[in-house]
Amino acid sequence: MAVPKRKHSLSRTRQKRGAHYKRVRVHAVKTSDNKAYKRPHVEEYIEL
């Protein structure tokens, strides 16, 4: 029976699967009018 070749190493798969465990928590920031919460992005400045 033909077995397909492994195209990537098993450790790479583990790194991809475990990536969400190492992800940092997203902090919700209250907007300046105190009506909503938003996620802080790097490219925009948020008034607190």
TrEMBL record:
Any GO BP: translation
Residue numbers spanned by region Disordered: 1-21
Annotated GO CC locations: large ribosomal subunit
Domain of life: Bacteria
A Pfam family assignment: Ribosomal_L32p
Alphabetical UniProt keywords: Ribonucleoprotein, Ribosomal protein
Residues making up the signal peptide according to the UniProt record: none
Molecular-function GO terms, alphabetical: structural constituent of ribosome
Keyword hit for Zinc: no
Family label: Belongs to the bacterial ribosomal protein bL32 family.
Name of the protein described by the UniProt record: Large ribosomal subunit protein bL32
